């Protein structure tokens, strides 16, 4: 069956090759950047940046992501209808509007938080964060169109160069001035250069094929009907993946946040990357088979996808068990690598489970039953939050890792049970 798919989906494999090249290159550059960061900067800088950028991520998930999801889903449809530029321009209008709304909300939160905690008003930090958020949102707008048009080569090259620039400039910035503002300013400068080159100077143009355009309300309705339902899942995902950092920051310190973030990054990335590559190959096939009402073939594709992923991830966990200490010593500076072996292994297992759970969720999506994954995700996020609050004061960052494992495991079992009951 695999040989048949390799022949039939040659174009998908080629696109997947560029996706894989982009992901592996970004991963390597990011790991090198993290290694240098842990060598030249104290953990509290990484911890502070994690909390600030995490807050911006939540805002983007709520205000920007629904538009982005709508853009990816419906852009090909409007290209086929001959209204590509009209759709792109109006999506851009919505993007800009909600970027500024979310920036205004962030400014209010920033000043309220600063005032309530008796911190000095750091206007420079605020300006850097606003610029970073704006640039990152515009970049996502541009990347989304590339994804919708399946321009994987251009997108991969952009991501590789962008990651290199961001890491290069934050390293240089930290060597000049070793503080939080410098670290964030370096990342922002890298974003500026990457966006200027790939998002504007060489970015592919787009035109309409028809003169009469649809009504603007058509796009707004699509955002409301298609995009808004993603918000609860985005919030739940944010709680499950980033919420523990804020609890660590509250009960422990920014230094502990930084150490946990560094270990978390290197432990989770291989499973997320390999899961993404495998999914990029099998997901389109599964959806096509189910869309063609070929349930038997779809079931076989799902099983092969699941078995392939479990096999690869089992080997990955074995590598973590045998060589975890060595990997940590190679990828983290000594001040970050003390007594974190158990966290590294637990987070690795957690993200293996998380990625397998995403395969099961995609099975629901192929049936058109996306609503069935919402409740298990919410329950898992709530449990994750409660367990973090209970364990972190007692066990420190080891407690946060255990909470992540418990939350993802609960989500996996509930989603799997739901699939078993339904199908």
TrEMBL record:
Cellular localization per UniProt: Cell membrane
Signal peptide bounds: none
Membrane topology: Multi-pass membrane protein
Keywords from the named record: Cell membrane, Membrane, Transmembrane, Transmembrane helix
Source taxon at top rank: Bacteria
Keyword Membrane: yes
Keyword Cell membrane: yes
InterPro entries for this protein: Poly_Biosynth_Transport (IPR050833), Polysacc_synth (IPR002797)
Chief place of localization: membrane
GO CC terms: plasma membrane
TM regions (residue ranges): 12-37, 43-63, 94-113, 119-135, 156-177, 183-203, 223-239, 259-282, 302-323, 343-361, 373-395, 401-422
Protein name: Polysaccharide biosynthesis protein C-terminal domain-containing protein
Protein source organism: Ignavibacterium album
Source lineage: Bacteria, Pseudomonadati, Ignavibacteriota, Ignavibacteria, Ignavibacteriales
